Amino acid sequence: MTLIYIIITAFSIVYLGIHWFSDIIGGMMIGALTVRMVDKSNTAVWNVLDERTINSRLATILTRPIHSLKFVYNRSKKFTLKLLKPTSKETGTLIVVVLILTAVVITWDLTNKDLPAEGVQSAQGAVASDGWLATLDNQSGVAIVLVHNLSSSDDAIIVMQPVMDVDSLYALKENYLVMANSSEIMLVDLNNPDQSLLVLSQINVDGLELTYFQGEPVIIYTSNDQIQAVNVDGETIVLPMLPDGETIDMISVQGNELVMISKEMPTTIHIGTIGLSGTQNIVINATSSEEQDLTLEEWGLTVDYQNASITDIAFNENYIATIVNVSAINRLVLYDRGTVQQTMPFDPKFPINNISIGYEYLVWEGRDHLDPTNPLEQYLDWEIHQYNFETKISEQVTSDSINQYAPIVVEEGVVYLEEGDDGELVVKVLTRGTDLAKYSSVVLQFAVMVLIVLTFVYIIQRQDEEKTEFINHDIGHESE
Known about the structure:
By secondary structure, this protein is an alpha+beta fold. The protein contains 6 helices and 27 strands. The chain has a domain at about 1-50. The strands form 7 sheets. The protein has a 4-stranded antiparallel β-sheet, with no helix packed on it. The longest helix has about 50 residues, at about 1-50. It is elongated and about 105 Å long.
């Protein structure tokens, strides 16, 4: 029994320590390589930077510039002649240079994944769907909707649109964009952005969504506490209905499913299918532990569950995510439609806003670790967080002193708004994963081809040099 215990313990230590061992071995290898490179370059570097002679070298450069130029010219000429007739030493140096330059390019690409949406001056908001990004931009007091194709680096597209203001509503689904101002709703196909597919006269639109039903785009909107849906021909579509006595407050749509929140039942989700009138009701529970509520009270924040209300919602076929305001703070509640369990992927003590679901991720903006009684500067800004539905792991995506807002999940990664030094908001696209940009792929392919040739040349040079050394060694022995 003792032997079994020892074996299990040893296995656990080794298994859990593999990553630790790998770090140590990798660090030792890099350290050894660094020492080797320093040893090789030490003499050449200190021949120039020796503090005992550097002052006289500088004086020579300043007082005898012609002599210095001749020295540089002769050294450059000598180096060029070496390159014209390189030995294995020069070839090996060139191999190292190619490796370093390639590593620099790839490292830059992998660590600079956030790309600004070109042409946007002062973003007021953004929506994204299936490779398209639409931004409401404030250009010198004029609100304009700009569209970007996330799969290309082309400039922004200005589509046909009604007269917009910074509070106007707009929604995006695949290649269709719908916009609404104070008096009309307009639908545009992004593949033909200069023409409108549909224009509806409608005032007081306070909710706007776009989806597909029976193979064609459908506009869903709320106005004067009423919800309506029309297709591209302007024909009315049947929608799920709220229970009698309830008025619409918020809507969200995904595929052929519609979620509604009423003013009378602000923590109850009504979910139904477009084309049918029935709904299913789900009550969201934003209650946290007593210890967490006591912590909020110590911070001067009082939790009010009686007047809680859902302020934002996003969902897919497996999950429904909601932001619930409990007076003191907003809380993220995730409802699993399969198990009907409710969880909180983000600490309910800390602020949260703006959620989005897509491609097996849930994203939001939050202020993790923020204690209002002792606010530390590194926790004052809004950062982007994400939850992976497959791994059930939450992580912080951005980490800096800059405010990031309104994240949206896209196939490429996350689209969000970032506050600039001047207070203006710019649109950023943070790509997910390790896919290389086109320029990095080209550099990597070219470097591989060059390294194959250089390595082949290096091997031949080393063989010739060793053969020459061997012959010279034999001749030396014979002469003795």
